Amino acid sequence: xxxxxxxxxxxxxxxxxxxxxxxxxxxxxxxxxxxxxxxxxxxxxxxxxxxxxxxxxxxxxxxxxxxxxxxxxxxxxxxxxxxxxxxxxxxxxxxxxxxxxxxxxxxxxxxxxxxxxxxxxxxxxxxxxxxxxxxxxxxxxxxxxxxxxxxxxxxxxxxxxxxxxxxxxxxxxxxxxxxxxxxxxxxxxxxxxxxxxxxxxxxxxxxxxxxxxxxxxxxxxxxxxxxxxxxxxxxxxxxxxxxxxxxxxxxxxxxxxxxxxxxxxxxxxxxxxxxxxxxxxxxxxxxxxxx
Amino acid sequence: xxxxxxxxxxxxxxxxxxxxxxxxxxxxxxxxxxxxxxxxxxxxxxxxxxxxxxxxxxxxxxxxxxxxxxxxxxxxxxxxxxxxxxxxxxxxxxxxxxxxxxxxxxxxxxxxxxxxxxxxxxxxxxxxxxxxxxxxxxxxxxxxxxxxxxxxxxxxxxxxxxxxxxxxxxxxxxxxxxxxxxxxxxxxxxxxxxxxxxxxxxxxxxxxxxxxxxxxxxxxxxxxxxxxxxxxxxxxxxxxxxxxxxxxxxxxxxxxxxxxxxxxxxxxxxxxxxxxxxxxxxxxxxxxxxxxxxxxxxxxxxxxxxxxxxxxxxxxxxxxxx
Amino acid sequence: xxxxxxxxxxxxxxxxxxxxxxxxxxxxxxxxxxxxxxxxxxxxxxxxxxxxxxxxxxxxxxxxxxxxxxxxxxxxxxxxxxxxxxxxxxxxxxxxxxxxxxxxxxxxxxxxxxxxxxxxxxxxxxxxxxxxxxxxxxxxxxxxxxxxxxxxxxxxxxxxxxxxxxxxxxxxxxxxxxxxxxxxxxxxxxxxxxxxxxxxxxxxxxxxxxxxxxxxxxxxxxxxxxxxxxxxxxxxxxxxxxxxxxxxxxxxxxxxxxxxxxxxxxxxxxxxxxxxxxxxxxxxxxxxxxxxxxxxxxxxxxxxxxxxxxxxxxxxxxxxxxxxxxxxxxxxxxxxxxxxxxxxxxxxxxxxxxxxxxxxxxxxxxxxxxxxxxxxxxxxxxxxxxxxxxxxxxxxxxxxxxxxxxxxxxxxxxxxxxxxxxxxxxxxxxxxxxxxxxxxxxxxxxxxxxxxxxxxxxxxxxxxxxxxxxxxxxxxxxxxxxxxxxxxxxxxxxxxxxxxxxxxxxxxxxxxxxxxxxxxxxxxxxxxxxxxxxxxxxxxxxxxxxxxxxxxxxxxxxxxxxxxxxxxxxxxxxxxxxxxxxxxxxxxxxxxxxxxxxxxxxxxxxxxxxxxxxxxxxxxxxxxxxxxxxxxxxxxxxxxxxxxxxxx
Amino acid sequence: xxxxxxxxxxxxxxxxxxxxxxxxxxxxxxxxxxxxxxxxxxxxxxxxxxxxxxxxxxxxxxxxxxxxxxxxxxxxxxxxxxxxxxxxxxxxxxxxxxxxxxxxxxxxxxxxxxxxxxxxxxxxxxxxxxxxxxxxxxxxxxxxxxxxxxxxxxxxxxxxxxxxxxxxxxxxxxxxxxxxxxxxxxxxxxxxxxxxxxxxxxxxxxxxxxxxxxxxxxxxxxxxxxxxxxxxxxxxxxxxxxxxxxxxxxxxxxxxxxxxxxxxxxxxxxxxxxxxxxxxxxxxxxxxxxxxxxxxxxxxxxxxxxxxxxxxxxxxxxxxxxxxxxxxxxxxxxxxxxxxxxxxxxxxxxxxxxxxxxxxxxxxxxxxxxxxxxxxxxxxxxxxxxxxxxxxxxxxxxxxxxxxxxxxxxxxxxxxxxxxxxxxxxxxxxxxxx
Lengths: 291, 322, 648, 434
What we know:
The structure holds four protein chains of four kinds.
Chain B lengths: L3 E8 L2 E2 L3 H11 L4 E6 L2 H5 L8 E6 L5 H11 L5 E5 L4 H12 L3 E9 L2 E6 L4 E7 L3 E5 L15 E4 L14 E6 L13 E5 L8 H14 L3 E4 L1 H5 L20 E5 L5 H4 L7 E6 L5 H5 L2 E4 L2 H12 L6 H5 L1
Chain C lengths: L9 E3 L2 E3 L3 E3 L15 H12 L4 E8 L18 H13 L5 E6 L15 E2 L13 E2 L2 H20 L4 E6 L4 H6 L14 H4 L1 H14 L4 E7 L10 H13 L5 E5 L23 H9 L4 E3 L6 H9 L5 E3 L2 H5 L3 H6 L17 H5 L30 E5 L3 H12 L3 E6 L7 H5 L10 H12 L3 E4 L5 H7 L3 E4 L3 E2 L12 E3 H6 L7 E6 L4 H12 L3 E5 L15 H10 L3 E3 L2 E7 L2 E6 L4 E5 L3 E5 L3 E2 L2 H8 L4 E3 L9 H14 L1
Parallel strand pairs in C: 3-4, 3-12, 4-5, 5-8, 6-7, 8-9, 9-10, 10-11, 11-12, 13-14, 13-16, 14-15, 16-27, 18-25, 19-20, 19-25, 20-21
Antiparallel strand pairs in C: 1-2, 17-26, 22-23, 23-24
Helix pairs in contact in C: 1-2, 3-6, 7-8, 13-15, 13-21
Chain D lengths: L5 E6 L3 H12 L4 E4 L12 E5 L18 E12 L2 E8 L10 E5 H14 L3 E3 L4 E7 L2 E7 L5 E9 L6 H5 L11 E10 L2 H8 L5 E8 L7 E7 L3 E9 H6 L4 H10 L4 H4 L3 E11 L10 E2 L2 E3 L9 E2 L2 E2 L1 H21 L5 H4 L1 H8 L1 H8 L3 H6 L1 H19 L10 H12 L3 H15 L1
Parallel strand pairs in D: 1-2, 1-10, 2-7, 4-12, 10-17
Antiparallel strand pairs in D: 3-6, 4-5, 4-6, 8-9, 9-10, 11-14, 11-15, 12-13, 13-14, 16-17, 18-19
């Protein structure tokens, strides 16, 4: 067995209570957990590990409270679980480690136990939501990357085919070879349910903890100055054109927009179908050759 | 004053989403901001920036290779304090790698880059974090937040950047197998330019068959299928296909409504289609009043007749591109 | 409750609103003739507070005796108002809803009719509506005005208001100063924008100094006056920046148009697209950090949420939506948006009645403005009866709703397969679709209160005898009347025939308007859209005389012009012989002739009251409502229905 | 006998289950506590009233550690008619200091806390796991099936604390008298108001609060209402007997909406925002409805054993649940020690229940639910009492005021209630409550 899969997950409050006046965030440990995307990453890791007969380790960057969740992942079948204590990379005032720092810490943890074939992550974290950790990770591991993936099909050991969205409804199919980093959408898979005995056994399993090393120099000249309730940015909206008030009025009322003269026809089903096709053809939505 | 550079990936001659906004943002902050397009069909993509900037530098590349492209871009961005990249696919692939290569901090998914302060959404959009910086950085800008208004229709001039092209050298970037065009049947309704909608009037009888038929007609017209809330609540069509204020707010060019009366919850989410056809037995319902062609007929029978005429044929090329 | 931002609280200086919905300032004519706030005010605002709105801003209170442009204006300058203020603010505060007072001097947009004093304005420029040349105020008088704002603000604070809004937009002396169109001064209050805004800054300073830090202070600005040489959006943004730079103001409200020149763009009817004024708050909000209120045909909570999400505004003014349904906010917040009685934007009973010096009401909500009298309240009957309503038009449906609300067992029988009567026809033309919401609102309310509705069921006296209800309400409507002058000429039909689709006029069409509302103009537009050559003829001085009241006249003119519809006035039809229509120009008595392919008549109809008389004759307890009582407009039908249904 | 995975399986980490797990674990047993939700109390979003005397035996000085909202220092009973209200109000300063009397608490916080106590005592808590059935051998319960793969778990004793309508008690055939009228529907709105407004309106300070029981607010449906204060929310609700509710055309939320507009209630909640609406079935017939509590290898505790006692003014389910849980834990330990976990061996549970207050209160109050639910108490007494009081307080000068007895006699006559019934009900009530 000379391949290895690692799933990277993040312990977050799934339903943080945010005071919409002050922006104060109250975290409740009881509502913390793994995001659907992270769970999908773990499930894919487990499935592919079975297909390739390799191990699937889970690494999490998070506080000690995350160990409860890590035990669930262990029970679900992870070969090992490791927690990176964010300690020194979480710095004031935002108390968030930057994506670059998290990626650096993860890289260290991933490579600690030897070379890796496939790293799986959720596409976005719920709390910060930048989705940039996987690409940093790919850079550090000199790996190929595919972000925001909607389907993963493992081929032979060390090769996978993925589909990812490109926007505008388009998508692309990519082939990746290890080492590779793939971030997945939550809809890709649902984590299997851990067995009862595995769950019970995992309750007192020990969890490896690694201390993250100090923060990278790049973040030093970036600092958070304030955190407030979100006030959406005004989206560009054109004012009505025209120096003449009347032109602006006409533009605002929409009264002069040319429309197809409305027609009402009473029709049988066949006449109706013909009328619809004829109209769509006239507007240019259908070729003369259609139907 | 900080110098800005807008870096826009292109694909098949089009900018990735949010490219125009990145340019507008950079130019608002720095009227001399450079605009660089990298990718396939960069020259053509530059025409999308008409009225937003005067000149664009182009780097023509073949398929998307984040690791190799970022290697090539390291020299290009020298001198720019702030590099702004769209936070859409390709942009968010590229930005972290470029940041890591150049040692610049990355501020990803910004809502705005206003002067010395960058605003980033946190906690799923409940909070905004204001970040200050005092050195060279890379920022990705969330698409569809800012919007961009062109001041004219003047296309920018273009120059091709001489950049060492490492193509051909070995990289471990993913290999592109295929790009799938938008599939009207599965694409996000909000992005669909042609929509076929079904209402409660199709639910009598064999509703499942009716909506399958509606889907087939949609495919034949190169359109996406949507439905009203009553239909999605009844489970005949999934909720992500519900058109209206409680579902998806859409903006199609053409809308063909079958047996939809046009409750305001539906029509308010419909945008302003240029062309509307409505089929209904009630000539006086709002959907008929809104229609350019109001057909007073039985919607289910009309669907049968349309299926006959259009066949189950796949959309023709013109139906896809018109 | 999918709207997150809409239901999130916001701070406006010292005041926290629980959601982003604002019942913003609008005239009600509820004040007494001597300018005192009334019980009607208190209960009207309290009902909206109970219905969950985040903030109430009252109608304007005049700051100065020189400002009395219409009869029932609240005289903030009269110290006696405080008792009325208290009643109003106490009633609203019971629901923990903040209420702000809008204070104003209308300047030259006023009449001396009530005040018997010359109107004051920055320059002697006559207002186009009132057509009075104002007195240009002296610098001393400006100081007097500024002081009057402070006095009234102090009075409002004493009266329990949580904040003050300075009306500086569509009808105000401050707008008069800000606008280059009405400010021709050459002193320190005219010329540069800084000078034109001077009075605004002075008022802000004076008001803040009397109200202190515990009350909110807002300024309402006009984003585009839509008049020649008036303020446009770029300058409005600059004014907003000036307002923010005073550091005394907690929010900015917005508006569009000038009340006395472009009112139809302020209180837009259904003919103007929703969100039309959104560019104003959006542009202002981009330039300032203060919370900004957006207004303009917000009908639906999700539309409001969208405006918030896209950052165009921080709060949304929904006035008519909350007049039509006081529980607009509560229903939306609890996820029952579908139960909302949606505003039609018809302007018939709200805006329309203001121009007629009557108190504000609502075409579909008989309770609006009648809260203090208990109209529309549930009064459960101790002896429920069986009631049969014949006809599911607006009158019959309202009678059914009112009776069923009080616990009576009500069945409505409608001959046709659908409810709504003539409203459905009225709503079936371009731009009038929203009128049809009346039908849907009544239908859903009727179902909620347990009314049984049978469609396709005709009722005659035998059927009534068979069903043996305790009471019958006849709401059978009216039937088109063939005008006397038409004789038996072919190709003469009624507007209803066209809307029902039973006739299809083609070619040249003369539409006769003897009703003076949407009937003729709607059909004229419809036929013009279908390619007919249309002329609308009326004996009146103007086609669609009452369209002015609902602010639809300008829209009609714009569209009629675009569609090449000819309008001919002062013409009385005298006969139609051999395809020639004779029209008499009544001021001169001269005849004119037309030879149209079709003549379509919008003329007063006849009541359909046979069933009513038959049942009365048979001794059945019977009432009639709506057109079958006397053909009138929809609001009258609803009022009839409510009166009869609630009185059972 | 088959090998077992644990000594005791407790199903349900509510107050009863956690109390059982605590006691059993402290007795040195190997305990598995299985909870359906992702954490204990996750299904109860908001609060309840907890009368905590019983906690003394479980967690000494619990008031220093338990997560509570407000200490109940006022209890009121309100009798309502359509347009009258009579309130009997009691306030005690003694309830404002240790050991305290009662408190309001948010159940997610309280239940999680109590389950943590169980874990500290050595119990193993397994969340997100639903028990789907019992494993039985030779008619005896030997374990449970869960919805997890590999999900069977065996133990010497199963303690079913799986809530109202206990699926496990039913599966074990322990229910005999489950008729619909034994259930009431509880509905509750949680209404948010600023802390200082609550304190002003209810005349309480700091973290003091009140609990009101309301009679006569259910439009003739047997049941009652309640209102209690949390830190910055108010809970207002109704309990309504099921069959009567079903026979009526009104929906429960309409009844609650009417209560909210009653002139005695409306000012208390004016301007409050609804945070949550919840509905819950409550077993309310007290002792007469209790299932058999013991079978071979299994005990039933808490709501599962219909131990929510709705004896008129006492809606103290959590107390009884904890008491029953403790007894169940102790009984399991005793049976395992004596190596007899058959029904006979577990019979000591009943004894313990009877000894401590749970069963004795239930027995003593056996008639009370019937009395509270009776037509006279529900419909006639509130108006009788309110009318008498109204006449006493109504100023009738210059006419001489009739004496109390005269008023009472005339109102009693007008109400149509016979003196014999009044005396009988009074006696039942005295016997039960006294």
